[in-house]
């Protein structure tokens, strides 16, 4: 087994003991009166992972703080969080300590008990000691289920907090991807999750399907609210100026991408990029060649803005398509590889016709995110694209402030998420919709709660269907009728939601859109606004 699998299995092996000890602790503390001197309007949010890579929990923290809650966001460091969390006065980021580095040099069988003990101790230290007054609410992300659900049950009992579980997915179903549904460890993990996840002050769900399943299977107790993922209010389709600034900056997402040599159109930074240009030659519809001197976009001697030539999108630009992934087994990247191979073959045939007119554009597929399978698949990609002329695929990682601008620079998105439980929805699609991008999404059970075929995106079942969708959306690019129709449909849904009263969202069309803030204030705010003590 790999180290990752070993670590997961060890957590599951610890589940039986942890269930027993935690249950005994809860029983013991039942005879003690929980503290009721809460710091009213206070919430602690626990993320057993990188805070900067947990967008939904960061948005929760932002919304709580904007509604006058003192907000403690507890989790691991690594990626930079969204800017608002570092500026809002009512937000405190509390980073869990990493295990001592000396443990890395020890055999797994010796280091693992110390790692899990350190993890449990660091979580309890933050929730029981470093947060001085008992929070009114304790919000936890699930998965991971082990050991977080047991720990928040214990902390909730000791400090009298109202525990809220935000069900993103099912932890045991993710483990089943590695070990199989019938494995003993999977059964133990499922029992653990059902036992400690059954009772809470409230349960949040990312889909209607997840709520229905868990209520029926596990008889969840507490208030139950479906809180669909929605994009934050600052997400939008990027303007030509924003695209130009992103790709002329010193940290351009395309910097150091050697596979793009001789693939992108000629450019002359900072006056032109692969996607934008500031020149206006009257006798041609194409940007000025790289060897022709250009006037700067803003003259340093100009006293007015009349001499400014704002950037425009280049007609000869490659089609930028994005796919955000966590590089995990529940996302089959092989489907995208096969589809790109088919697109390359079709582009060679169609663009090689005697008419000389380019019918399909060059396709630049940018895959964002980090994860365990990234290097494996990128090695396959790099081998394939050595012989490709019309397609390139790159992997990029963007900080939180650049991520929406990059998404908004693309033509559309591709989602490969299939869900280990078939009950959750990919937040990456939510981000893309927020940036005005239609999405081609792999079909699975509850996807229609988010992606409506031919309305805000297209649904595919295999690589051949995805390849056909890539071709149809990019035919005659940049003037693609099918892509333009999907953009108009998505835009209409967005504007319709903006004009809908926030407390009457369900009265409108089933597939219309809204921002995270509107949805949170409609669904979550009534749940936490009472201020009733436990």
Describe the protein in words.
Its EC number is 2.4.1.142. This is Chitobiosyldiphosphodolichol beta-mannosyltransferase. The protein is an alpha/beta fold and 534 residues long. The chain has 2 domains: 3-226, Rossmann fold; 318-494, 3-Layer(aba) Sandwich (Rossmann fold). 38% of the residues lie in helices and 16% in strands. It is built from 16 helices and 15 strands. It has helices at residues 3-29, 55-66, 108-130, 148-159, 171-179, 184-197, 208-218, 240-248, 333-350, 374-384, 403-408, 427-434, 463-474, 481-498, 516-523, 525-528, and strands at residues 39-50, 70-76, 91-95, 135-142, 162-167, 199-205, 221-226, 276-277, 312-313, 319-324, 363-368, 391-396, 412-415, 439-442, 457-460. The strands form 3 sheets. Strands 3-2-1-4-5-6-7 form a 7-stranded parallel beta sheet, sandwiched between helices. It has a 6-stranded parallel beta sheet with strand order 12-11-10-13-14-15, sandwiched between helices. Helix 12 (427-434) links the parallel strand 13 (412-415) and strand 14 (439-442). The longest helix is centred in the N-terminal third of the chain and has 27 residues, at 3-29. The two termini are 45 Å apart. Residues 1-7, 282-296, 298-306 and 501-511 have low confidence and may be disordered.
């Amino acid at each position: 087994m790999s180290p990752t699998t070993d670590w997961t299995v060890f957590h599951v092996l610890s589940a039986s003991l942890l269930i027993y000890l935690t249950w005994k602790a809860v029983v013991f503390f039942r005879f003690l009166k929980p503290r009721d001197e809460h710091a009213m309007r206070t919430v602690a949010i626990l993320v057993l992972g990188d805070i900067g890579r947990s967008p939904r929990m960061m948005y929760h923290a932002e919304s709580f703080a904007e509604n006058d809650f003192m907000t403690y966001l507890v989790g691991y460091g690594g990626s930079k969080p969204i800017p608002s969390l570092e500026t809002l006065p009512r937000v405190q980021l509390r980073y869990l300590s990493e295990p001592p580095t000396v443990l890395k040099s020890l055999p797994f069988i010796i280091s693992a008990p110390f790692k899990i003990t350190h993890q449990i101790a660091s979580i309890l230290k933050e929730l029981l000691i470093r947060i001085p007054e008992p929070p009114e609410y304790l919000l936890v992300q699930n998965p991971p289920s082990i050991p977080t659900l047991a720990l928040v049950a214990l902390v909730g009992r000791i400090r009298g907090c109202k525990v809220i579980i935000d069900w993103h997915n099912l932890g045991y179903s993710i483990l089943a991807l590695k070990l199989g549904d019938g494995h003993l460890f999977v059964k133990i993990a499922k029992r653990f999750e059902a036992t400690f996840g059954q009772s809470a002050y409230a349960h949040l769900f990312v889909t209607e399907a997840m709520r229905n399943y868990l209520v029926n299977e596990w008889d969840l107790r507490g208030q139950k609210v479906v809180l669909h993922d929605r994009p934050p209010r600052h997400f939008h389709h990027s303007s030509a100026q924003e695209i130009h600034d992103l790709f002329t900056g010193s940290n351009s997402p395309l910097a150091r991408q050697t596979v793009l040599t001789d693939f992108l159109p000629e450019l002359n930074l900072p006056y032109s990029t692969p996607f934008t240009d500031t020149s206006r030659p009257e006798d041609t519809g194409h940007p000025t060649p790289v060897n022709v001197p250009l006037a700067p976009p803003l003259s340093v001697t100009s006293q007015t803005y009349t001499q400014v030539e704002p950037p425009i999108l280049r007609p000869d630009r490659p089609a930028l398509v994005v796919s955000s992934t966590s590089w995990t087994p529940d996302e089959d990247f092989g489907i995208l590889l096969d589809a790109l191979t088919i697109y390359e073959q079709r582009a060679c045939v169609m663009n090689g016709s005697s008419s000389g007119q380019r019918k399909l554009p060059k396709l630049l597929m940018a895959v964002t995110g980090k994860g365990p399978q990234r290097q494996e698949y990128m090695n396959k990609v790099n081998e394939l694209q050595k012989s490709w002329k019309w397609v390139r695929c790159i992997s990029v990682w963007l900080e939180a402030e650049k991520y929406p601008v990059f998404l908004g620079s693309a033509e559309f998105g591709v989602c490969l998420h299939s869900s280990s439980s078939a009950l959750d929805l990919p937040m990456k699609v939510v981000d893309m919709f927020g940036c005005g991008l239609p999405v081609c999404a792999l079909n699975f059970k509850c996807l229609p709660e988010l992606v409506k075929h031919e309305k805000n995106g297209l649904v595919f079942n295999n690589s051949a269907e995805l390849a056909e969708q890539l071709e149809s959306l990019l035919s005659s690019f940049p003037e693609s009728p099918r892509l333009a129709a999907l953009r108009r449909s998505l835009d209409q849904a967005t504007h319709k939601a903006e004009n809908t009263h926030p407390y009457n969202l369900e009265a409108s069309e089933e597939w219309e859109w809204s921002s995270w803030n509107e949805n949170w204030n409609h669904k979550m705010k009534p749940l936490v606004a009472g201020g009733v003590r436990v």
